[in-house]
Amino acid sequence: MNQTTDREIWTSVLAHIREHEPDKCRQWFEQLDPVDIRDGVFRIKTLTTVHKDYLNSQCQSIFDDALRAVTGRLVSARFLQQDEPDTLPTNKQAHAFIEPRPSINNRTDQLNLSSLILNPDSSFENFVMGPGNRLAHAAALAIAQNPGNAYNPFFVYGDVGLGKTHLLQAICLKIIEYNTDARIRFLSCESFMTQFMESVQIGKMAEFRDHHRDVDVLVIDDIQFIANRARTQEEFFHTFNSLHQLDKQIIISCDRQPEEIPDLEERLISRFKWGLVAELDAPCYETRVAIVQKKAQLRALDLHEDVACFIAQRIDSNIRELEGAITRIQIQAMVDSAPITLDLARLALGEPAPADQAVLSIQAIIDATTAYFGVRMADLQSKRRPRSIALPRQVCMYLARKHTRHSLEEIGGYFGGRDHTTVMHAIKTIDNHLIENPDVQSAITVLERQLGRSATN
Ligand code: ADP
Ligand code: MG
Predict the structure, then answer these.
(1) Closest by Cα among 367, 300, 369 to 330
(2) What is the CATH number of the domain that holds 30?
(3) Ligand 1: does its nearest atom lie under 6 Å from the Cβ of 293?
(4) Residue 222 CB–ligand 1 contact under 6 Å
(5) Mind listing the pLDDT tens digit for each residue in 246-265?
(6) Cβ of residue 216 lying under 6 Å from some atom of ligand 1
(7) pTM
C-alpha cells in the first residue's frame, strides 16, 4: 500500500471533517496516527484508551463519512490503541468493525451495566478557572490526586450548563492518568435507577451490587433525579456505605444542595454532606471570554478576540449556550463561505448588525456622553485618569463597542491611542456597574435612548 497516498487521504479526511463538521472537529485529531488502508478499513492509532473509546462512540460516523467522501469508496475507520498490534484483521474481523460495537462496559447479556464514555476534552487542562468555580476546581483536583482520602464524598452542585459533568469527568481522566488500572463507574442517576430496576425485574441484584460496589470510584451525575424514588434511595444508601467504608471515592453532582432535593431521606442528606459540598456559580465576563477562547482552540478555530468578547457579552450564564453560539457562528461562516468577523457573529446570533439601523458614529456617542456627564471631549482623549473623566470615557468605550462596528483597537485609538485591553477593561467595568450601580445603569439607559438605541440592541 502506498504510504504517500494513505497520508494524503488522511490529510484530506481531516480537512473534510474540519470543513463539514466544524463543531465536532477537534484539534487533537491532528495527533492521531494513521496506519494504513486495507480491505476497506482505515486503521488509525489513538492517543489513549479514553480517546479510542470516545472516537468509537462519538466520531465513528464522522470519520466514515469523510473517508467515503474523500476516497469515493466504502471505507470505514477503525481506531486502535497505541500499543495494539499492527497486524491486519481478517476480512471477517474487518467487517465486524463496521457493525455498531457494544459499549465497553457492557459485560453481561441481559443486564445493561454500561457506564458513561469519558470525553477527553473534559479535562482539567480544558476547564477554565474563575471566581465562580475556584473552590470546586481545587477540591476536584485534590480528589483526583488522592481519591478516597481528600474529600469523600465530593458533592458538587450548580445550575445547568455550569460545568458539573465536565468537572466530574476531569477527575476521572486525571485518576486514570495516574493509575490506568483504577476502576471507575461513571453514570447518570437515571442510568443508576434504570439499571437498578432492571436488575430487580430480572433477578440480577447481586450482579448489580457487585458492579457498583466493586470499584475505586463511583460517580453519579445529576443525583437530583433520585427525588421521590424510595427504593433507589435505599439501594444507593447501601452502595454509598459499602464504598465509603472501604475509602472508595464517591462523587456526586446535583442541580441543588442536598437538603433541597425533594423527598430525599435524611440519612442520605447527611451522608452527602460528610465530605465536601462545593458550588459552581455562573462565570464572570473574563471567565466567559477565556472559556470561549478555550473552546475555539479545542476546535482548532481561529476566533478573533473581538468575537470572543462579543459572545461572552451576549451570553452571560449557561456555558453550554456559549458553545452553542460558537457552533452557530461556525455554521454561519460555513454557509456563507466567509471568515468569522464580528458582523458575521452578530448575524449568526440573530443580532441586527449596526448597519441595519441608522449608522451610529463614535462622535455621536462622544457628543451625547460628554453632554450627559458635563465633560469635554479633550478630557476623554487625554491621559488623565480622575474618576470624573474615567467613567465617561469608559461609558463611551462601552457604547461604542456595543453600538458601532469599530474594533477594540479602533475604539482605543479614538481615546488617546489606548490599546484594546484598556477598552476591554472599560467594557468589563461598565458591565459590572450595570449589575450593581444604579447611577451607571441610568446613565446608559438615558444615553442609549438619546442615541436611538434601546437597551436590548
Ligand atoms: P452541567 O453538567 O453543569 O450541566 P457541563 O459540565 O455539561 O454542565 O458543561 C456544559 C459545557 O460547558 C461543557 O461543554 C463544558 O465543557 C463547558 N464548561 C463548563 N464549565 C467550564 C469551564 N469552567 N471551562 C471550560 N468549559 C466549561
Ligand atoms: Mg451535566
Answers:
(1) 300
(2) 3.30.300.180
(3) no
(4) no
(5) 999 999 999 999 999 999 99
(6) no
(7) 0.76
